Amino acid sequence: MKVSILGSGSSGNSTFIEVNKVKILIDAGFSGKKIKEKLEIIGEDINSIKALLITHEHGDHILGAGIISRKYNLPIYITKESYDVCQHKLGKLDPSNLNFIKGDFYFEDISITPFDVMHDAVRTIGFSVKYMDKKLTLATDIGHITNIVREQFKGSQIAIIECNYDYNMLMSCDYPWDLKSRVKSRNGHLCNTDTAKFLTELYHEDLEKVFLVHVSNDSNCYDLAYNAVEFELIKNDIDLDLEIVKQNTVTPIYKSKK
Ligand SMILES: [Zn+2]
Ligand SMILES: [Zn+2]
């Protein structure tokens, strides 16, 4: 299992995953040109991508989705609810490249489990990617850790989870009150301390790598997010390989140990 985050935050999200030689992207929140270039940085050709999975309709997750689907004949997997509200942004897709997510789906013997998360889109999902005893789980925009989320992340070797804002920075930043209130609501984003608590709860011996993603530029900073999580882990005597993902950086490919 290999993973590289091509960038994450409110200016764009996209994640490359390779399992048993099957290569997929989750979200395409950069321009088509940028996604192609970002893949080249990690030595991957966009033509080798088998599918593009979409978490929800917000622009930072779909900006280049329609373009790369048309240009590289790339199948998109999206919920019907998300598609209905962003159809105009995706543009015309070849019907054979449009797949509505209804439940688990498969690429050869790799299974993908979508699960609902709380966020202020019409519908938002996270994904678990499983192959034999390997498991990777991702949730990038998530207002609240529900039992469904806990259950889905359980047993993952690689976890990709939002670490969006620092509460005090959010409260003192320039956002209007309604935006602050939206961000911190159960349908908004996850704060550093909630992510930290969730990870201490999730921790198990096989959890080998955690990517902290969707860090806000306005109400968080990378060191603060990393330190908040690290502090909670140390307090609980947990040693984890944590990587904070920056908006404009492509993370080097991480290969799971299993
Ligand atoms: Zn969103
Ligand atoms: Zn987002």
Fold topology:
Elements: E1 2-7, E2 14-19, E3 22-26, H1 32-41, E4 51-53, H2 59-62, H3 65-72, E5 76-78, H4 80-90, E6 98-100, E7 105-107, E8 110-117, E9 124-131, E10 134-139, H5 147-153, E11 158-162, H6 167-172, H7 177-184, H8 192-202, E12 209-213, H9 222-235, E13 242-244, E14 254-255
Helix pairs in contact: 8-9
The structure holds zinc ion (ZN) (2 copies).
One zinc ion binds next to helix 2.
CATH fold-level topology: Metallo-beta-lactamase, Chain A
Radius of gyration: 17 Å
Helix content: 25-40%
How many E-type strands? 14
Q: Give the overall shape.
A: globular
Domains, number: 1
Calculate the mean pLDDT score and round it.
97
Any low-confidence stretches, pLDDT <50, length ≥5?
none
Q: What is the tally of helical segments?
A: 9
Which ions and ligands are bound to the chains? zinc ion
What's the level 1 CATH class?
A: Alpha Beta
Strand order of the largest sheet: 6-5-4-3-2-1-14
Structural features, described:
The model has no long low-confidence stretch (mean pLDDT 97). This protein is an alpha/beta fold and 258 residues long. It is globular, with a radius of gyration of 17 Å. α8 (192-202) packs parallel to α9 (222-235). The protein has helices at 32-41, 59-62, 65-72, 80-90, 147-153, 167-172, 177-184, 192-202, 222-235, and strands at 2-7, 14-19, 22-26, 51-53, 76-78, 98-100, 105-107, 110-117, 124-131, 134-139, 158-162, 209-213, 242-244, 254-255. The N and C termini lie close together (8 Å). It has a single domain (2-251), classed as Ribonuclease Z/Hydroxyacylglutathione hydrolase-like (Metallo-beta-lactamase, Chain A, 4-Layer Sandwich), CATH 3.60.15. Strands 6-5-4-3-2-1-14 form a seven-stranded mixed β-sheet. Strands 7-8-9-10-11-12-13 form a seven-stranded mixed β-sheet.
